[in-house]
């Protein structure tokens, strides 16, 4: 355990696995902390249609399984645990899982982002009792039920369509009069007879007793409230970066994303960031994978320049 790794990657989405593939293929001694739930956000999505190389699309979990195996082929070591602490104050850099200490010359942070919540007490009360942020994981529980999807981006469109495989009806609740999603995704939703679109509405309260029974909605223009009967609510309102572990270690911007100072390097020499954790603009599987490659090349170059 006290060997010094050339590269420790924290995170196992497209950025983390790609950083692993490039680092191990460059003969760097590489360890990936993949967490208790490896694979990142793509493991909670259905079909990925826009990752080049798969003309008929590929299921998100399958894509991540392939990436993980590809990195393993070149000798990456995996630790299937969550990192609990880091100390980047001196070389070697230190990464901890409770009392276990791991040392590295460079670290690539690729911890991604997690679902944004509305901030309602009632959404916490009914979490996993009808409230979810993952249609792929929980859609099955809503066979022959009525659900609402909150949001107006591509995720919301995708979740709404997916949920019609199970639910008898899906409300799509968007807070403005315009969707943020791409036209092709909006068109699919509009063509789906099981989806009813509610514009200019926010969720005021999740209603229920033991489980969700409905939502109180507020019209953002008139201020009027109304209620819809639903058995479930799926949040698809974007993501926030997973950077709590690093907030006293590397510079973050005001929304919590990691700041990259020189190419993919953070404010700490030898510490790099890749994927959604440092990207509030593109946030795609393919851009994450690309930045994992970039971080690995940057880490190798940094080691060469500093040894
Ligand atoms: P986005 O940030 O694109 O969209 C978030 C949506 O949630 C917006 O409609 C936003 O509204 C709304 N929202 C945010 N906060 C709240 C709130 N508190 N209450 C109500 N609504 C809220 O996130 P996505 O997860 O949809 O997409 C992220 C990225 O992933 C995008 O680049 C997208 O293109 C991509 N993607 C691609 C897919 C594909 O190609 N198959 C599938 C899924 C995602 P507002 O617009 O008013 O801010």
Topology diagram in text:
Elements lengths: L3 E7 L3 H12 L4 E4 L13 E2 L9 E2 H14 L3 E3 L5 E3 L5 E5 L2 E10 L3 E3 L5 H5 L5 E2 L2 H4 L7 E5 L3 H10 L5 E5 L9 H8 L4 E4 L2 E8 L3 E8 L5 E5 L2 E4 L3 E3 L29 E3 L11 H22 L1
Parallel strand pairs: 1-2, 1-8, 2-5, 8-19, 10-17, 11-12, 11-17, 12-13
Antiparallel strand pairs: 3-4, 6-7, 7-8, 9-18, 14-15, 15-16
Helix pairs in contact: 1-2, 1-7, 5-6
The site of NADPH dihydro-nicotinamide-adenine-dinucleotide phosphate has 20 residues, from helix 5.
Descriptive overview:
The protein has 307 residues and is α/β, with parallel strands linked by helices. The chain has 7 helices and 19 strands. Strands 1, 2, 5, 6, 7, 8 and 19 form a 7-stranded mixed sheet that branches. It has a 5-stranded parallel sheet with strand order 10-17-11-12-13, with helices on one face. A 3-stranded antiparallel sheet has the order 14-15-16. Strand 11, helix 5 and strand 12 form a beta-alpha-beta unit. Helix 5 packs parallel to helix 6. It is elongated. The two termini are 22 Å apart. The structure holds NADPH dihydro-nicotinamide-adenine-dinucleotide phosphate. The site of NADPH dihydro-nicotinamide-adenine-dinucleotide phosphate (NDP) has 20 residues, from helix 5. The site of NADPH dihydro-nicotinamide-adenine-dinucleotide phosphate has 20 residues, from helix 5.
| Cα end-to-end separation | 22 Å
- Secondary structure: number of strands: 19
SS-based class = alpha/beta
Question: Which shape, going by the Cα principal axes?
Answer: elongated
Annotation field: number of helices: 7
What is the H/E order?
EHEEEHEEEEEHEHEHEHEEEEEEEH
Strand content: 25-35%
